[in-house]
Design goal:
CATH class of chain B: Alpha Beta
CATH architecture of the largest domain in chain A: 3-Layer(aba) Sandwich
Number of strands of chain A: 15
Largest interface: A-B, 43 and 38 residues
Structural class of chain B: alpha/beta
Shape of chain B: globular
CATH topology of the largest domain in chain A: Rossmann fold
Radius of gyration of chain B: 17 Å
Distance between the termini of chain B: 44 Å
Number of helices of chain B: 10
Order of helices and strands of chain A: EHEHEHEHEHEHEHEHEHEEHEEEHEH
Oligomer: heterodimer
CATH superfamily of the largest domain in chain A: Thiamin diphosphate (ThDP)-binding fold, Pyr/PP domains
Order of helices and strands of chain B: HEHEHEHHEHHEHEHHE
Helix content of chain B: 25-40%
Largest sheet of chain B: 7 strands, mixed
Number of strands of chain B: 7
Number of domains of chain A: 2
Strand content of chain A: 15-25%
CATH superfamily of chain B: Thiamin diphosphate (ThDP)-binding fold, Pyr/PP domains
Structural class of chain A: alpha/beta
CATH class of the largest domain in chain A: Alpha Beta
């Protein structure tokens, strides 16, 4: 357990996983269901200890499958739910994500990515980019995915996601990795929001399962089965109308110097921080490197790529995977510039020097 | 003025069900919702439905209700109950849903002593998918995936769920009833009431198994299916109270 200084009104030193858990509580999470898996174990531990103090409930589920279905139940009942897991555990949760999207049950899912495939390893990775952005559940559905690159940003995004999930009646994924989850940084935590009591849930969530009381004309059902093709097609179109609105409002990216540069590095999460240092090193060697840091992985910030300088020689997708984000980068670049991959995987983390040197090598071939 | 002695319960919505002639789902649906009606609790109940023939229970039962992924209703109900601890929460599940794909969920919900009630429809076969072997299919019983009869040497033995759950301290009320006779139905209704009473008192997990008929997939007439329950099902799945508070 890391040391938290609750008395301090603003800035505290916290481990990533614990800061994310605390921000979920402050964002109104009163229900957490989890199963142990490294490197996110601090979250169920923190929630088991801290949620009851805040009037909330913790269940250690028998599996990740059960955990997400408990989340589905609590979310359908109108509660604010936050769950977390890591790569193989997230794989088990994906059936539930598909159901939650179809039935429009809100929940926030934190994924603390490790390495795969299979059991893989417990070191940080980003090889679950497809898992998060493409989904492993069945059917046509989308989940907004945000990838913070610092504990502060992660804390802010978890807090905001608690609201966004309710607003859009959809799961929201916060995509972090074992490094962000395990390291400690100073963080300014958000203020607690007020949470509706169980009795008052229907006032803000007219759709929730609360028991209809005296008037059965307000009976609610939450379903994902639609056997008639024309009915299901209409429902899927309704979901995709919603996703279109989400694309308009939730697409986010940070950029540095892409309008005037020799090369653009694209990196998200913890890799973007290492890449920023590499960009400074390259600048000292007279190479102008820009950065695109997608904050939303879905919706991917395609339009930002239109701003890349015409004199840029290449766009380099820098990732802890064997080329997953690069597919979105290629779509965004649309053959305007060469796209190359700078990758480490298996839990290996490139140094800023390595990124700088490999960028130079790539430029030398252009 | 004549006093009505039997009426359509408010607990069931006035829509056609999708159930076959001789199927007992209609009886078990009614027993649950009629009991809630008599308790004045329809408006406070929240149901968690299965995947299987009863997937559309939410269209028939006049309570707030959700569908659940196959086998996951006990996990869903655990979540619902955390948000609404004072509401009556129940799951309604078939044998494939509860005793096969959802085995982990039901065992752990019972072990946690979750204060909701589970109603388990055991008709020894997969209904909606067309008559495949269930975890409760009897030795020698024919199904579309055990076409010469369940061979216990190859596919093992049926699971007696009441007996299994009775070993768990969190399960405080466990009863098996049979829907093959008026007396059995009357007993079943008492069991449903008991389960909800146990839940209201927050004593722990309550569980009622309905030994049920599936004439369509058994390849029997509705009348012959009733006999099948008595002659074949009940010797393997004996009715009775396996656990009860006090």
């Amino acid at each position: 357990m890391s040391t938290t200084y609750q008395e301090s009104p603003s800035r505290v030193l916290m481990k990533g996983n614990e800061a994310f858990a605390e921000s979920a509580i402050r964002g109104g999470c009163r229900y957490y269901f989890g199963y142990p898996i490294t490197p996110q174990n601090e979250i169920p531990e923190y929630m088991s200890r801290e949620l009851p103090k805040n009037g909330g409930h913790f269940i250690q589920a028998e599996s990740e499958i059960s955990a997400i279905n408990m989340a589905y139940g609590a979310g359908a009942a109108g509660g604010r739910v936050f769950i977390s897991s890591s790569s193989p555990g997230i794989a088990l949760m994906q059936e539930g994500m598909s159901f939650a999207c179809c039935a429009e049950v809100p929940m926030v899912i934190l994924t603390v990515c490790r390495c795969g495939p299979g059991i893989g390893g417990i070191q940080p990775g980003q090889a679950d980019y497809f898992q998060a952005t493409r989904g492993g559940g069945n059917g046509d559905y989308k989940i907004p995915v945000f990838a913070p690159s610092s504990i502060q940003e992660g804390s802010d995004l978890v807090f905001e996601a608690m609201e966004l999930a309710d607003k859009w009646r959809n799961p929201i994924i916060i995509f972090t990795d074992g490094l962000l989850g395990q390291m400690m940084e100073p963080v300014t935590l958000p203020e607690h929001i007020d949470v509706a009591s169980s009795k008052d849930i229907r006032k803000s969530k007219a759709w929730a399962l609360t028991g209809y009381g005296a008037d059965d004309s307000s009976r609610n059902t939450i379903t994902s089965l639609r056997l008639q093709p024309e009915v299901l097609e209409k429902h899927v179109h309704h979901l995709f109308d919603k996703y279109t609105e989400i694309e308009k409002t939730l697409t986010r990216a940070e950029t540095i110097g892409i309008e005037d540069c020799d090369v653009v590095l694209v990196a998200y999460g913890i890799v973007a921080r290492i890449t920023k240092e590499a960009i400074e090193m390259l600048a000292r060697d007279g190479i102008k490197a820009g950065l695109i840091r997608p904050i939303s992985l879905w919706p991917f910030p395609h339009s930002v790529f239109d701003k890349i300088s015409n004199k840029a020689k290449a766009v380099i997708s820098t990732e802890l995977s064997m080329g997953q984000m690069i597919e979105d980068v290629r779509l965004a670049v649309a053959n305007r510039l060469p796209v190359r991959l700078l990758s480490r995987t298996g839990g290996m983390i490139p140094t800023s020097l390595e990124i700088a040197e490999r960028t130079k090598k790539i430029l030398a071939t252009m | 003025m004549l006093k009505p002695i039997f009426e359509y319960t408010k607990g069931m919505l006035r829509v056609e069900t999708n159930f076959c002639p001789g199927c007992t789902h209609g009886i078990s649906h009614r027993l649950i919702t009629e009991t809630l009606d008599e308790m004045g609790k329809l408006g406070e109940a929240i149901g968690c439905g299965p995947i299987g023939c009863a997937v559309m229970a939410h269209k028939f039962m006049n309570v707030d209700m959700c569908e659940c992924a196959h086998g996951r209703a006990p996990a869903v109900a655990s979540g619902v109950k955390r948000v609404h601890p004072d509401n009556l929460v129940f799951t309604y599940q078939g044998d494939g849903d509860l005793a096969s794909i959802g085995t982990a969920e039901i065992i752990h919900a019972a072990a946690r002593g979750e204060c909701f009630s589970t109603f388990f429809v055991n008709n020894a076969i997969y209904g909606m998918t067309g008559g495949q072997m269930a975890p409760t299919t009897l030795p020698g019983q024919r199904s579309t995936t055990s076409q010469t009869g369940r061979d216990t040497g190859k596919s093992g033995f049926p699971i007696r769920v009441c007996e299994l759950l009775s070993t768990l301290d969190g399960a405080v009320y466990v009863e098996r009833v049979a829907l093959n006779s008026p007396a059995g139905v009357a007993k079943a209704k008492k069991a449903v009431r008991r389960a909800f009473d146990v839940q209201e008192k927050k004593l722990g997990f309550s569980f009622v198994e309905f030994v049920s008929a599936c004439p369509t997939n058994w390849g029997l007439s509705p009348v012959a299916a009733v006999d099948f329950i008595k002659e074949k099902m009940l010797p393997y799945y004996p009715p009775g109270v396996f656990k009860s508070p006090q």
